[in-house]
Amino acid sequence: MPFRMPKKTGPFFNNIFDKKDKSGTKFKLRFDEYYFSLLAGLVYGKYDQNAELEDSEFFDDYPNEYSECKEFIAGLLIATEIQLQGISEDDADEMERLMVEYIDSSSKTLLTSKGEQRLNQYAARGIDVLEEQMSGRPFELDSFFREYFMIFQKNEVT
Q1: In Å, what is the CA distance from 113 to each residue of 71, 91, 101, 154?
Q2: 36-81 tens-digit pLDDT
């Protein structure tokens, strides 16, 4: 189950997405929407166990523009899960268990199917966070970025 878009993501980002945009004022990849939703879920440390996801995957691997981020994203997943599960930095056995549960170095995404599923759950909760914390659906990319980064600063999320 690689990447499956949360159902709310398309409508939320609709005004700032245009795959043919050459001006740099819109997202050109649907994966951009997924990524910003995912980061919000990971930063807030929240995932949706019963995520409403699109029926089919929209990417089975990272797009070229994100291919160098897969280790970073896998690391964020592990770091977030360590924190949520209260695993001590000194507990090597629990960290190894978590790594085995979520990481697969032979897969295209570097994640097990359970890791991919958990990412999708974080993205689904992340879009909820954006809807709750932002002033509304974005209409311009630059204002989205300003407000997006401010929601993390004003809430002092660590």
Answers
A1: 16, 24, 9, 34
A2: 999 999 999 999 998 888 887 677 889 999 999 999 999 999 999 9
- In the DSSP assignment, the letter for residue 60 is S
pTM of the model: 0.91
R_g over Cα of the chain:
16
Q: What phi, psi does 156 have (nearest 5°)?
A: 45, 50
**Among 105, 97, 96, 102, which residue's Cα sits nearest to residue 114?**
102
Degrees to nearest 5, angle at CA 27 with 53 and 45: 50
Buried b (16+ CB within 10 A) or exposed e, 75-87: ebbbebbbeeeeb
